[in-house]
Automatic annotation (TrEMBL):
Residues 5-100 form the BLUF domain. GO terms for molecular function: blue light photoreceptor activity; FAD binding. This is Phosphonate transporter. The lineage of its organism: Bacteria, Pseudomonadati, Pseudomonadota, Alphaproteobacteria, Hyphomicrobiales. It holds the Pfam family BLUF. InterPro entries: Acylphosphatase-like_dom_sf, BLUF_domain.
């Protein structure tokens, strides 16, 4: 069922080298591209970035999610991609965001530190569930303006 709604959550290692400014401008560019492409094919989701890794939720018609995720996997700006969730869904969790950019506040960056320190990127099902709930909290906190 290519039109079945589908969700993917993955983490990857950030391969963008150079100073923070460069990371910021690369991320701004990829968010702009993502929002245009995703809106066209019906994908919504959220992206988390820190200096070490990316985490991203993609939701939408299964075929569209698979095609965009295929392109994302070819992107040299990251590597070691690990899929934590890949599942059909009944409803979207991020209906309002072609690609939300979340997790930049100090509190949220602290909330993500465990991903590197505790797992050293050896992830599994439990990590997926935990990370998914953190991404959701971040997205909703940011929409509510509660980002301290
Ligand atoms: C961490 C990360 C997340 C990305 N997320 C998306 C996305 O949600 N949608 C998208 O179209 N491209 C995304 N990209 C960019 C794709 O890898 C690719 O550059 C883009 O789809 C090419 O689009 P274009 O053919 O329109 O230039 C992402 C790249 C990275 C590194």
């Amino acid at each position: 069922m290519p039109n079945q709604l589908f969700r993917v959550l993955y983490v990857s290692r950030n391969r963008i080298a150079g100073p923070l400014d460069q990371l910021k401008s690369e991320v701004a560019g990829l968010l702009a591209t993502s929002r245009i492409n995703n809106a066209r094919v019906g994908i919504t989701g959220a992206l988390i970035v820190n200096s070490g890794f990316f985490a991203q939720v993609l939701e939408g018609p299964r075929k569209a999610v698979e095609e965009v995720f295929e392109a994302i996997q070819q992107d040299g700006r990251h590597g070691d991609i690990q899929v934590l969730l890949a599942t059909p869904i009944a409803v979207r969790a991020f209906p309002n965001w072609a690609m939300a950019y979340v997790g930049q506040s100090p509190r949220h960056q602290d909330a993500l530190a465990w991903l590197q320190t505790e797992t050293d990127f050896h992830t599994g099902h439990l990590v997926g569930e935990r990370l998914y709930s953190i991404v959701m909290d971040m997205a909703y906190a940011e929409e509510a303006g509660d980002v301290a």
